[in-house]
Specification:
This protein has one domain: Up-down Bundle (Fumarase C, Chain A, domain 2). The chain is 64% helix and 6% strand. It contains twelve helices and four strands; from the N terminus they run αααααααββαααβααβ. The strands form two sheets. It has a two-stranded antiparallel ribbon. It has a two-stranded antiparallel sheet with strand order 3-4.
């Protein structure tokens, strides 16, 4: 537990428990098992496997509790968890082992689990963005007509209304909400390409199997696999960074407004100093700036992860695993912190 999102005490500042759960190993494994069960049931739908056998094997798959030590050792050996998981499931199926994973590849499993994870993440983010918008609207009703000093390049310029600054915080979030809605149909899609992305390992049934699986998993069904075309995943990472960047601007403004001598905002809550008891530091506003800078740094790594060689890249693919979960957690925490800040404001303006 060394990353800040799950650290024993740093998580108190950085963690969003809902997003932590969405990206947890248990949830990832549940999605992988859901993929395998849907594939087995799809074999029955295209009549390559008897229905009773498919249902028995699929039910056993979904009820399976994986041997985590075996998965860890398998990942160390194979570079991906799926081969070890599939061996466990095939052993579970016994004489019906061919009903497990036939025609699919590891990336089909991992990427479909990612699509299911992004669906859960997007639903959570949509709710949080809407909540921030509602809280900013409430601040506008309460303080929007008050006057503050407009500043350009940190210097006093002309008076503005609080409403003017609140609009600079809220308007990008409205656009991000639209962007997220547009991304959902193209990120929440099945991955099923087989060994080299062509679905040829399923014979003439590839498209029908994909259609069946997509329906069972409630995902979109693209016409072919997308093993090496990661532009949509990069779009998603870009949006995460834009959300935190917009909230970082809000946090930076609040930090400056709260400075002693400017005093254009009052906040309740924590921020104690161990050395100066009378201080109240704008901790959550600072956190918005930190998370914005974190995601801005991480998104460059996601662009590196876009470069997949030939029909599959282990190097680029695994880079996604390192970066995208942290970006999602940073984004959700930024939104929850923004909501906390809005609720803690007791005055804006003079």
């Amino acid at each position: 537990m060394t990353d800040v999102f799950s650290h024993p005490w740093l998580s108190g500042l950085f963690q969003d428990p809902t997003t932590e759960a969405i990206w947890s190993p248990d949830r990832q494994l549940a999605h992988m098992l859901a993929f395998q069960a849907a594939l087995t049931r799809a074999f029955a739908d295209v009549e390559t496997l008897p229905v009773d056998i498919a249902e028995k094997v699929a039910a056993d798959i979904q009820a399976h509790s994986p041997d985590m030590d075996d998965l860890r050792n398998g990942t160390a050996r194979d570079g991906v968890v799926v081969p070890a998981l599939v061996r466990q499931l095939k052993a579970l199926a016994g004489d019906n082992a061919d009903a497990v994973h036939s025609g699919a590849t590891s990336q089909d499993v991992i990427d479909t689990a990612l699509a299911l994870t992004l669906r859960d993440t997007s639903l959570h983010l949509q709710g949080l963005i809407a909540e921030v918008g509602e809280n900013l609207d409430a601040l506008d009703l309460q303080f929007g007509g008050s006057e503050i000093t407009g500043r350009t390049r940190t210097q006093s310029a002309k008076p503005i209304r609080v409403r003017d600054r609140l609009q600079a915080w809220s308007t990008p979030l409205s656009r991000h909400k639209v962007r997220l809605a547009k991304l959902r149909p193209v990120t929440e899609i099945l991955q099923l390409g087989g060994a080299v992305g062509t679905r040829e390992d399923f014979g003439s049934h590839g498209d029908a199997i994909a259609q069946s699986m997509a329906r069972k998993l409630d995902l979109g069904n693209p016409p072919h696999g997308w093993h090496t075309t990661r532009d949509v995943i990069i779009d998603y990472a870009n949006l995460l960074s834009m959300i935190t960047g917009s909230l970082g601007k809000m946090g930076q403004d609040i930090c400056l407004m709260a400075q002693q001598g400017i005093d254009e905002i009052e906040l309740t809550g924590g921020g104690a100093s161990s050395a100066i008891p009378h201080k109240q530091n704008p901790v959550l506003a600072e956190l918005l700036v930190t998370l914005a800078r974190f995601n801005a740094t991480q998104v460059s790594g996601m662009h590196h992860a876009m470069v997949h060689e030939q029909e599959r890249s282990g190097a680029a693919w695994s880079l996604e695993w390192m970066i995208l979960p942290l970006m999602a957690q940073a984004t959700a925490r930024s939104l929850t912190a923004a909501n906390q800040i809005c609720r803690s404001i007791t005055r804006i303006g003079r």
